[in-house]
Design a protein that fits this description.
The chain has about 325 residues and is an alpha+beta fold. It has one domain (about 15-305). Helices cover about 30% and strands about 15% of the residues. The chain is built from 10 helices and 11 strands. The strands form 4 sheets. Strands 2, 4, 5, 6 and 11 form a 5-stranded antiparallel β-sheet that branches. Strands 1-3 form a two-stranded antiparallel sheet. A two-stranded antiparallel ribbon has the order 7-8. A hairpin with a 2-residue loop joins β5 and β6 (about 105-110). α7 crosses α8. The relative contact order is 0.18.
Length: about 325
């Protein structure tokens, strides 16, 4: 299918802060449309599952993709996503929260982090700090790993996957908010490997075996401040999960934690952790009344540290 991505990257960043508070999309998440007025059943379903912190457009990685990042020493790009629920049949109590669970185990995704970066999407003249995919170049608004063997399957099947689910695409949301044409045609091949239902367990949707240990983590996730230890715990559980089950292999879990503690990245990925830290420090300085920098600052923060180049737009 054909899409116009130049100057957009709406599926790779959280653009909600660009909107006035009373115009923000309510309860919208990746690959799902917002409930229509009067559709009480769907509206209830949306209200009962609320992500614990984190950014919009969360791309869920498979277990094998998580293991690949782990083996390269690139776990710094990963973060978990849990949800709170209202229905006691769908969740488990952890502290003062009821979180989505299967068989009494909290369930979660693992996806790519969105550190703050100065970006100017949708034809805007001035840059704004927005949560932006760790692999998105702020200058070109292109993905640094597109076409590589690490490019996530779910990124590669967007927006075909969304259309196959009869949901509103991010292209259409951007068109409605900012104008222009992004989704140029809707013909598509049905994406392979959609993991929904029981087959997602252990393959994309992971179950934490020790709920009582997560209370402090949920507080930090809700504030948008998960610690390195929080992320490592979830990455290790995901890497040690068994597809189709809620089981977690303790030997694989321990080995994953040991790998995370060493976490020496391959030479090609050594730029990731310092770049994330640098962007966060500069965003914090902006909060102290410094101007938002030009997106071309990425040449210093990412490119000079060894980030892969993007091809530019023809």
């Amino acid at each position: 299918m054909e899409v116009n991505c130049q100057g957009c990257a709406g599926c790779c960043l959280d653009w909600r802060p660009l909107l006035e508070a009373d115009e923000e999309p309510k309860g919208r998440h990746h690959a799902r449309s917002a409930p229509d007025d009067g559709d009480a059943e769907r509206e209830q379903a949306f209200s009962e599952r609320v992500p614990l912190g984190g950014s919009y457009n969360f791309v869920a990685l498979t277990r094998d993709e998580i293991r690949s990042f782990l083996e390269r020493g690139s776990a710094a790009v990963l973060t978990p996503r849990f949800w709170t629920v209202e229905d006691e049949r769908e969740g488990v109590e952890v502290g003062d929260r009821r979180v989505a669970a299967v068989a009494g185990r909290p369930v979660f995704f693992v996806g790519l982090r969105k550190p703050p970066k100065p970006v100017a999407p949708f034809g805007r003249e001035e840059a704004t700090w927005l949560p932006t995919c760790v692999f998105l170049d702020p200058t070109t608004l292109q993905c640094r790993i597109h076409g590589s063997d690490r490019f996530p399957d779910e990124c590669g099947t967007y927006p075909e996957q969304t259309i196959a689910l009869d949901a509103e695409t991010e292209c259409e949301r951007v068109e409605a908010r900012f104008g222009g044409e992004r989704l140029l045609e809707r013909d598509h091949d049905d994406p392979d490997g959609l993991l929904f239902g029981p087959q997602a367990l252990g393959a994309k949707l992971f179950c934490h075996p020790r709920p009582d240990e997560l209370e402090g983590m949920f507080d930090r996730l809700e504030r948008g401040e998960p610690s390195s230890a929080d992320r490592a715990e979830c990455i290790a559980v995901a890497a040690a999960s068994s597809p189709g089950t809620v089981a977690v292999s303790e030997p694989h879990y321990e080995r994953a934690l040991e790998r995370l503690e060493g976490d020496e990245p391959d030479a090609g990925d050594a730029w990731i952790r310092p770049a994330i830290d640098d962007w966060c420090r500069r965003r914090d300085r902006t909060r102290a009344n410094e101007a938002v920098p030009d997106p071309e600052l990425a040449a210093v923060i990412e490119d000079r540290r060894g980030a892969p180049e993007t091809p530019g737009w023809e």
